[in-house]
Model the fold of this input.
Amino acid sequence: MANCTCTKCGKSMDEGQFYTYKDGQKTEMCKKCLTMHIDNFEPDTFLWLLEKMDVPYIPEEWNVLRDRAYAKDPHKMNGMSVFGKYLSKMKLKQWKAYGWADGERLREQNAARAEQVREEQAAYEAEIKQQYDEGKISEAQYKTLMSTETQHAEEPMYGSAPNMDNNPYNENNFMSEDELIDPASELTTEDKMYLAMKWGRLYKPNEWVELERKYTEMMNSFDIQDSDTTGTLILICKTYLKMNQAIDCGDVSGYNTLSRVYDTLRKSAKFTAAQNKEAKNDYVDSVGELVAICEREGFIPRYATDIPQDKVDITLKDMNNYVRKLVTQDLGFGQQIEDSIKKLQIQKEMREQEDDFDFDEDEVDGLKDKDYEEYFEEIQEQKQKDIKIMYGDEEG
Done:
């Protein structure tokens, strides 16, 4: 692909970054520059471009593409979100034969039907709004059933001018600043110079007071010694102020972003309950602190307790309490103890019976040297008797 140069930003880009006229020529400006001032809800901001591209303006077709882009992500919808898709739609067979000059005739054909549709839609949305105001339907139902144009008018997008008639955060609905007490009214010139140097000159005096109050509370709550942690604390206080301002004006998206930053800063500086200075002061963790307390206040009944403070003693006490509760409160534990005692007794008796059957190895063998001698002598005598029986007595 060839490159084209934008006449506005002066950048040379691929021709795909430029829209195409009906005669095949590319636009003088790139897509981003050409559509940078389009408000998709204000026809006056894009009608001149449709005339330049020689395509008819069909409100119904434009609104369909606009509502689809709005529903996908209202915060990311820009001038390019609808314009390019609308040009592509006008190249379809249904609209290809029409140009800018045909737009008025086409709109007149649809005017009567569109007016009827608007009246029906207005009556329908009035009923839905009444149900929502009376609490009969949820906010999710209300936003689903209401048209995109109505929601856009009630809740203006980021960067667009708010509709003060429908804005629930209109200052006219609340107390004026004249009726409120100015917390910065007693600040001297020196105070303002100090606060401006510490927090920055872009904050209002009442914001300085709020920042300083938060800073003091954090300094009293946590043990902050080094400059890095102090710098992080200043950022935490500023983020805390902006976070509250965002939620007060209804900027939920901004609040969510700031709250994540706030949590990250607190975790990075380890501003957690474990480092809470007040909680730490409830304990004496060094001999120096103990001596200082005794010299300053003498005997403090607060630290006098009957419970042993040694960890071993506390562990033994807990074990004793556990055993006592186990014996007195566990109804089946006594029976388990009795069963165990019986088993131990049975095992003891069996061992005693086995001990009664023990005998000496010599008795098991039962044969001595004398026994062998008698045995062989007896065999010899029996042999002599057998010879006499078989051969008779030679002397006889």
About this structure: The chain is about 60% helix and 0% strand. The CA atoms of residues 133 and 276 lie 45 Å apart. Residues 156-164 have pLDDT under 50 and may be disordered.
